[in-house]
């Protein structure tokens, strides 16, 4: 279908529209004349994923937002569809006008929705693989809570009661309760199904959260995990759940690569540092057998796997997530031993609370 093209006056009312506009929105050409553009493209929806970086209004009419953005458009019958809307100011004898081009992006929206469904299923599957380790991680603070509660009962029953010891025990109870709550919060966050929430965030905290989730699994495999976070690391721009999924997948792959290594080689390093003024780089480095030359170019292809029971989707989904964030992901062999999986992300703009998108 040809692109819908329409011209609005300075009040936002349609003065010209091509036949494609009428066909796309379900109106006759005559019905469109003098209709306000906001009827076709309701004011800015805050959940749309791209917009003019200077747009700080949550209800700005289409004529006031110049450039390209994704918007929900509305047909005559009331149904909404995802559209790419590009607007540009023009001059005419009638004064200032706006040229708007609307492209139906329903197919792209469906593709994104299916990708999100697949990513969610993969997250749930990954947590299922970690069920035993997560149960152990949760059982430790719960056991400590029970033990401390029993000790407090004994101190309270003693004559005279040892209230100082009880106070110390209560502090431990609060600490262990917070630890158990954190594990549950992280699990709930990854299992949760919903729309991506792309925000400025601390990549250091993302790494710390994932490290906590795999902590017991690493101990069970005899793996030592180290973090090397640059003090100069700026905030990133992305969806926390999706980025945790990428990092979790890379870490579990690194753990698998160390299964046959000697105990002293069972080491995984997570590194994060600025990659440039506009990007940060995260690296998961192991001391496994490394990657064969013909493998490196296939690793991120769907259904490619070297695991006997693997589906070959983890790295493919990770690549989709990273690329949708405006970064890139790749694998390489270390100079001495093992492999490194690296990805970059846009730097977040923490200093400007009105900034609504990644660096342009």
Tally of contiguous helical segments = 10
What is the CATH homology-level superfamily of the largest domain?
Histidine kinase-like ATPase, C-terminal domain
CATH top-level class of the largest domain: Alpha Beta
Topology as a string of helices (H) and strands (E) = EEHHHEEEHHHEHEEHEEHHEE
The largest sheet is: 5 strands, antiparallel
CATH topology (fold) name of the largest domain: Heat Shock Protein 90
Q: Number of DSSP strands?
A: 12
Number of domains: 3
> What is the residue-mean pLDDT, rounded to a whole number?
80
Structural class: alpha+beta
Strand order of the largest sheet: 2-1-5-4-3
CATH architecture of the largest domain: 2-Layer Sandwich
- Overall morphology: elongated
The percent range for helix content is: 40-55%
Instruction: Output the radius of gyration.
Output: 27 Å
pLDDT < 50 stretches: 46-65, 350-357
User: How far do the termini sit from each other?
Assistant: 30 Å
Give a written overview of the molecule.
- This protein has a five-stranded antiparallel sheet with strand order 2-1-5-4-3. A five-stranded mixed sheet has the order 7-9-10-12-11. It has a two-stranded antiparallel ribbon with strand order 6-8.
- It has helices spanning about 20-25, 30, 35-40, 105-130, 130-155, 165-190, 205-220, 240-255, 295, 315-325, and strands at about 5-10, 15, 65-75, 80-90, 95-105, 200, 225-230, 235-240, 265-275, 280-285, 330-335, 340-345.
- Mean pLDDT is about 80; it is low at about 45-65 and about 350-355.
- It has ten helices and twelve strands.
- By secondary structure, it is an alpha+beta fold.
- It is elongated, with a radius of gyration of 27 Å.
- Helices cover about 40% and strands about 25% of the residues.
- It folds into three domains: about 5-105, Beta-Lactamase; about 110-195, no CATH class; about 195-360, 2-Layer Sandwich (Heat Shock Protein 90).
- Helix 7 (about 205-220) packs parallel to helix 8 (about 240-255) and helix 8 runs antiparallel to helix 10.
